[in-house]
Amino acid sequence: QAKNAGRNSYRLFDPALQADVETRAALETALRDAISEGQLALHFQVQVDHGGQALGAEVLLRWEHPVYGHVPPAQFIPIAEASGLILPIGEWVLQQACAQLGAWAEQSQTRHLELAVNVSARQFRHPDFVSQVCEALKQSGAPPTRLVLELTESLVLHDVADTVAKMQALRRHGVRFALDDFGTGYSSLAHLRRLPLHQLKIDRSFVQDIVIEPGDAAIVQTIIGMARNLGLSVIAEGVETQAQRLALQRLDCTVFQGFLFGRPQPLSAFETWLAQPPTPISLFATALAVPL
Ligand code: C2E
Ligand code: MG
Ligand code: MG
Ligand code: MG
């Protein structure tokens, strides 16, 4: 008994835990002003087809605080979710992404590009979500068919009826949906079939060891087969090496994203990359040498 009490009191005054609570509180306070202080920015990570051509990019949010420096999304997105700050932040990301799509739509070299925007659960569940997306599209003149919204398995399965209704409402405008981090959750085929999805994103964890873990290769193969049967496109995320890309290509994966092709980068660097991508020859030469 005394031991238990001791453990509890220890836990209560655990300095590490206390620091964590304080950090979260400090970050939450700082995050409140991040938009108005101009500390948030979109980075763009290219998505390429089998020939190395850019299809578009995933939008990844970056927060640079004058004192805390670069705070990674893995740290501030959960705080934004818990505090509700994800609502204004998520809306800002959508507006910025749509503005970019609108600008790209005016140039013949860029009008084919798509942007994939991550949507968090709290944002998606908000009753105004559909009208928020429509408003962002209308204000910016972005072609709705160039906007892809990334949802996670846990998000879509939480309330399937609400999910399907919102997805269908946006589908009618031409907006498409990708299922992010696919394979890490518990989606059943029956549920997936009901969702008006366009794409599955194979989670980085399966891509990472695809060359050395036959089990991971089998999972990827199964996902690709399933996607094909459901009429869905597949993209592999987190592709870092040629060997991974080759293994994926052998399994008929045709769309890729990862450091091998490009890191998430600010708009100016991304547009420079677009104008002068690494030569398809150097990226894909090995594919020609290996029988597929
Ligand atoms: P995600 O949507 O699965 O995004 C992919 C993450 O993998 C990004 O991390 C990206 O930088 C990283 N990545 C891409 N290629 C590679 C690779 O080849 N190797 C490795 N090791 N990593 C790679 P990031 O930017 O730190 O974002 C982390 C997560 O934060 C995202 O995961 C997403 O869930 C969330 N997030 C980012 N931006 C937003 C946003 O605007 N809204 C919301 N709701 N969530 C966001
Ligand atoms: Mg994503
Ligand atoms: Mg992902
Ligand atoms: Mg992820």
UniProtKB/TrEMBL annotation:
Superkingdom of this protein's organism: Bacteria
Residue intervals of the EAL domain: 24-278
GO cellular component, one term: plasma membrane
Subcellular location as annotated: Cell membrane
Keyword tags: Cell membrane, Membrane, Methylation, Transducer, Transmembrane, Transmembrane helix
A biological process from GO: chemotaxis
Protein name (record): EAL domain-containing protein
